[in-house]
Amino acid sequence: MNLFSITIASLTLLASTPALAQSTQLRDGVRAVAPALEKYQHDTLFGDLWKRPGLGARDRSIITLSALITRNQTAELTEYLNLALDNGVKPSEVSEIITHLAFYAGWGNAMAAVAVTKDVFGARKIATEQLSPPSPQLFALNEAAEADRAKRVGELFGAVFPGVTQYTTDVLFRDLWLRPGLAPRDRSLVTISSLVASGQVAQLNGHIPIGMNNGLTQAEIAEALTHLTFYVGWPNVFSAMPVAKEAFEKRAR
């Protein structure tokens, strides 16, 4: 158990007396190294941020998992996976988040998350049957929207990078994004969180409108960025804010 596990207990109201005693010892240990960090984590991160009304606990768990996996920060992934499952994220959705992030954060980061998640699923006795099948019946494709996207990307890059443009069409937008194991809104939340976490803010110009078409609101995206400040750092979020603001303004015209 680490300091985060302490907060898990308080958030889920499941702490036993022995756990609380151990939590006190762990908090004292962190306080001996970084007393201000312990205070911020207890008072601000979990005492305030996770309780803000702009997003529910399930959405905050999706954002946090996306950030940790994208940045290959597995030290606290076990605790956040357990919290996500407690907050209503289904095992099949966790599986889809990892799969989706293989394409947006890289295969190695997804595989690192697989190794940690395997142990969490095992401890919770989550069987393969509870996960999404490899080749499900896909959601219906918006042919007009996809044709427009493919045309724009093809005109920009197709002649120079034909492989990338073809995989983007065939694998991402005609397959991955249509998998039913994760709702389109949640898939957009994962993608936007990952782009901010990795500093790839230029891509927000395209993915914020997609997210809003998929059901995310401007207020929810703004709150997602607020949440991400604590998990990916203020500089990454401040770099994302001008791009997000411009996307919101274009949407309103």
Strand residues, percent? under 5%
Number of helices: 13
β-strand number: 0
SSE order: HHHHHHHHHHHHH
Compute the CA-based radius of gyration: 19 Å
Morphology call: globular
The unreliable regions are 12-22
Euclidean distance between termini CA atoms: 50 Å
- The helix/strand class is mainly alpha
User: Mind describing the biggest β-sheet?
Assistant: none
Helix content: over 70%
Summed over residues and divided by their number, the pLDDT gives a mean of 91
The gist of it:
This protein is mainly α and 253 residues long. The chain is built from 13 helices and no strands.
How does the SSE layout of this entry go?
Layout: H1 3-12, H2 17-33, H3 35-45, H4 57-70, H5 77-86, H6 91-104, H7 107-123, H8 143-158, H9 162-173, H10 184-197, H11 204-213, H12 218-232, H13 234-252
Helix pairs in contact: 1-2, 1-5, 2-3, 4-5, 4-6, 4-10, 4-12, 5-7, 6-7, 6-10, 8-9, 10-11, 10-12, 11-13, 12-13
List keywords for this structure.
13 helices, mainly alpha, 253 residues
Question: What do you see in this structure?
Answer:
Among the domains are: 1-47, no CATH class; 140-178. The chain is 71% helix and 0% strand. It has 13 helices and no strands. Helix 1 (3-12) crosses helix 2 and helix 10 runs antiparallel to helix 11 (204-213). The radius of gyration is 19 Å and the shape is globular.
